[in-house]
Amino acid sequence: MNAEKVIQGRRVTVADVDLVQLLLKENSSWSRRRLSQELCRRWEWRNGKGQIKDMACRSLLLKLEGMGEIRLPPRRGGRPNHRGYRIEETAHDRSAIESDLKTLQPVSIEPLSSKDSRLPLFKFLLHRYHYLGFQTCVGETIRYAAYDRHGRLLACMLFGSAAWKAGDRDAFIGWDSEARKRNLFLLTNNTRFLILPWVRVKNLASHILGKACARLNADWIDKYGHSIHLLETFVERDRFRGICYRAAGWIHTGATVGRSRNDRDQTLSVPVKDIYLYPLRKDFQRRLCA
Fold first, then answer.
1. pLDDT per position as a tens digit, 182-194
2. C or N: which end of the chain has fewer Cβ atoms within 10 Å?
């Protein structure tokens, strides 16, 4: 690598790559996990609660390998499938829920930890019923399940890392490249939102969005030790109209340019998506541009 790059939100210098290469050479028995943990400690790469950013580091290492800078040791146990995770078939109730919203109240929004017994069902439902499927998120993530007053599952939501670049979003915030690099961690992306297909309740989607937005910052502080100031989502315009986001107060700020984040040569064509943002505080622009 001839110059420093920003990978996984971190500035990676030539000296950093040299360190990775040295650790690999001197510790041939180390697993990928052992390597990433050691690097996190040496780099002091931690989240707001002092926890090492192990998964982000592993993603960084994979990208360095893809660039031809390093060669990682073989995976131990191999991948369960081509995406790197296993989706277990999980039994679930598909009884129709059709009523007015008032009948279901109060609707509760509950975060799911990585050890929550409900997590396998959450993953399977996204895998089976969301058009994008389930994908493991790298970095800071919060998963929510929404339930009605009778404890029936209504919806699944996933918030994860914000998009690295989005021209119309960045212009709305007032970001230049340096401010974006400093403060991207203060955004989160609603990457998945699934109302279960047998649930048909008018205004439910916007109601759930509102309840999630109301608690998300506090949950983020509790889990990661820092605030978030702005939420984003990308709505594929050929499939959806974004009505529930608009009804919940999200702001339509433009659209993507129809290229993938992995399209280094600008040759891949992907669906254009409308960009919606939801500020969590009035002075979000000042804070995100600081």
1. 999 999 999 999 9
2. C
Instruction: Kindly tell me if the per-residue pLDDT of 110 is higher than 70.
Output: yes
Question: In this predicted model, what pLDDT tens digit does every residue of 138-181 receive, in sequence order?
Answer: 789 999 999 999 999 999 999 999 999 999 999 999 999 999 99
Q: Is the pTM of this model over 0.85?
A: no
Please name the residue that has the structure tokens 């939100």: 9
Pairing outcome for strands 97-98 and 199-200: parallel
Q: What is the 3-state secondary structure (H, E, C) of the chain?
A: CCCCEEECCEEECHHHHHHHHHHHHHCCCCCHHHHHHHHHHHHCCECCCCCECHHHHHHHHHHHHHCCCCCCCCCCCCCCCCCCCCCCCCCCCCCCEECCHHHHCCCEEEEECCCCCCHHHHHHHHHHHCCCCCCCCCCCCEEEEEECCCCCEEEEEEEECCCCCCHHHHHHHCCCHHHHHHHHHHEEEEEEEEECCCEECCCHHHHHHHHHHHHHHHHHHHHHCCCCCEEEEEEECCCCCCHHHHHCCCEEEEECCCCCCCCCCCCCCCCCEEEEEEECCCCHHHHHCC
